[in-house]
Automatic annotation (TrEMBL):
Pfam families: DUF6513 (PF20123)
Segments forming domain Pterin-binding: 93-335
Name recorded for this polypeptide: Dihydropteroate synthase DHPS
Top-level taxon: Bacteria
GO biological process, one term: pteridine-containing compound metabolic process
InterPro entries in UniProt: Dihydropteroate_synth-like_sf, DUF6513, Pterin-binding_dom
Coiled-coil residues: none
Length: 462
């Protein structure tokens, strides 16, 4: 039996929904049914259960994306599969195409070593606190950094405590004594050894990260690799990533050369030399570096969060490694997989053109303000008219809210969000916070589409 889909909608969206479906020309047959409510987003499953008297022989029912209520109960009552469509009608084509495929982001192939660079200067309790924070953001290994000419009397205690708390730990120092202490205290990895310090690997069981004896000296690195292979010992190789303008491109070449010479060895990329030493948003830097890791099969990175602008670097690397892994597994570009790396922009920021907003505005017959954005700017409208601007201050004289402080405050917040979204090229949905990908922690609980959103603070009674 061929599929017949019933689309439920409101009065204002009915024409647009029909136009979109005509353009899509889906393989299934369909019926568009206007349920007698003006705004589709105000529809609820209880309302549908009361008003829907004919299901038009549908094999599936698609509700507006913002419809509230229990769709499982509605499906059971109607004896037909019910699902929510996208929140924006303009996303309906993707809903039946790209957006229908959900990528598995639970898998990754790159371990994140998160370095606590100031470990000698903070207490064991503070080290554990930082380790917990890094683990929450995706770190697999907690790297205990030692500082030159700085006493670290609690080094061994810190490592033992972290191990007792269930962490995988690495000790990071250029001092042989620190590496020996850390290894004997139970560290799982040690950074870093070269061909003259490989004797340390004979003293402790920790897996060493190998570096060249002298910077750019791949011959010494190859000799160290050969020694460890002869001993049948596990190791990781780090040819050293250099900062931009201090050998960055050539260091990428070195990584490529090492991978060509040693197709199967474990490698590490120290991403902090780029994220920390480049004043640019780190989400894009991490994405590109994780792409390099994916192509070269580099399965470990050393990450830091020292500079204030790099305060989300580990979380960004975690999201990036998962996206790159999914893209590689599916043999596809890292596009349309997950929005976590889209911090400042979005793939489709303006779902509605200005002429479509104008067409909607003329249908509004109530005093409630709607706010939308298009490439042309910010638009606010109700039954009294449509006003557009690129500066929200220009809209205030048209709003007539000078004697309504709560409403003025609400509109100010929403128009500010709309302006930011318009300037950056982000999605704006009225009454919802802007989304910044993995760059921020959400300050609002995830919307539960089975429940009604509580009134905002400006609508609550004092």
């Amino acid at each position: 039996m061929s599929e017949h889909v019933l689309f439920l909608t409101g009065k204002l969206a009915e024409k647009q929904l029909r136009n979109i479906l005509e353009k899509i020309q889906p393989e299934f047959t369909y019926t568009v049914h206007q349920l007698g409510v003006k705004v589709a987003a105000l529809m609820t499953t209880d309302m549908i259960a009361r008003r829907l008297t004919d299901t038009f022989a549908a094999t599936r029912i698609i509700l507006p994306g913002r419809c509230r209520g229990d769709i499982a109960a509605l499906s059971q009552q109607l004896n037909i599969p019910v699902e929510r469509g996208p929140e924006e009608l303009k996303d309906l084509p993707m809903y039946f195409g790209k957006a229908a495929h959900k990528y598995d982001l639970s898998q990754y192939s790159v371990k994140i070593f998160a370095e606590i660079v100031d470990a000698p200067n903070i207490s064991v309790e503070a080290i554990v606190e930082k380790a917990l924070y890094y683990r929450r953001n995706g770190a697999d290994v907690i790297d205990i950094g030692c500082l030159p000419s700085t006493d670290f009397p609690h080094l061994e205690d810190a490592i033992r405590t972290l191990k007792q708390e269930g962490f995988t730990v690495s000790i990071d120092s250029l001092d042989d004594a620190d590496l020996l202490k850390g290894g004997k205290a139970g560290a799982d990895y040690m950074l870093s050894l070269h061909e003259d310090s490989l004797w340390i690997a004979d003293e402790i069981a920790a897996t060493p990260i190998l570096i060249p004896k002298k910077h750019e000296d791949l011959a010494s690195l190859n000799r160290a690799i050969a020694i460890m292979q002869a001993k049948n010992r596990a190791f990781i190789v780090d040819p050293i990533l250099d900062p931009i303008h201090f050998g960055f491109t050539q260091s990428i070449v070195r990584y490529h050369q090492v991978r060509q010479q040693h197709p199967d060895i474990n490698m590490m990329l120290g991403v902090g030399n780029i994220t920390e030493l480049t004043h640019a948003d780190t989400v894009g830097i991490n994405t590109l570096l994780m792409g390099i890791c994916s192509e070269l099969n580099i399965n470990n990175i050393l990450a830091t969060e020292v500079s204030k602008h790099a305060c989300r670097a580990i979380k960004e690397a975690d999201v990036a490694r998962r996206i790159m892994h999914a893209a590689k597994e599916q043999n596809t570009l890292p596009k349309h997989i997950d929005a976590g790396l889209m911090a400042l922009h979005e793939a489709a920021p303006f779902p509605y053109a200005f002429n479509e907003i104008k067409e909607l505005a003329v249908q509004i017959t109530d005093p409630s303000f709607r706010i939308q954005i298009s490439q042309e700017g910010v638009h606010i409208f109700n039954r009294d008219g449509l006003h557009s601007a690129t500066d929200p201050f220009d809209l205030y004289p048209h709003l007539n809210v000078k004697d309504d402080g709560g409403h003025a405050f609400y509109l100010g917040v929403e128009l500010a969000r709309a302006e930011i979204a318009w300037q950056l090229g982000k999605r704006f949905n009225q009454d919802q916070p802007l989304h910044w990908g993995c760059a921020t922690d959400s300050t609002e609980q995830t919307v539960d589409l089975h429940a009604f959103k509580p009134a905002g603070s400006t609508l609550k009674k004092p």
